Input
Amino acid sequence: MDYLAMLSHLFRQLGYNGWVVLIDETELIGRLGKKARLTAYKNMASFLFPAQYSRLESTFTMFAMGASFVEDVIETKHDFENMATVYVDRSEREPTEKVLNHIIAAPQLQPLNQDEILGVLKQVQDFHGRAYGWESRLDVREVLKATETRGYLLRTRIRAAVELLDQLYQYGQAGNIQINDLGEPHYWDDDLPSLDECVQE
Output
């Protein structure tokens, strides 16, 4: 944390108003053991509430995580109860508790509507054409139609669109597109020991 505090101070000294830190796929915290997860939440507090829990200057942080995190991790893995048993003292619990409540209250992004998905696929088509120096002459609605059966996740639709465009570029026609489901992440059970528990044994 000292290194990040030094960076935030350096940015201010260089004349910047601050910096933005985006941490993606935060739901991977769910794969950690009980104690490691609580430590991760405590570290998140340093970014989300820098004035209280760290020396970060002018730092704005965004954490992105899957919509099912609260149900799949916080509730299923009993993080509030675990916090109460691991951190006996109220002052030790406070940063973790604030983060958990912050996650629960966080706004959820709405799924993209049809026009927004169409816009993304149009950009994929344009980038593909620029990358290979060709024009697909395919209406983007046909790309959308070809990706509709591939699932609801945007990344899966993008993969299907790239596969379709690759086939059209290479062979002049597109066959059946097979895209494996990427799905939502699966979280490990708590019966796996944490690193701290392994080191202490």
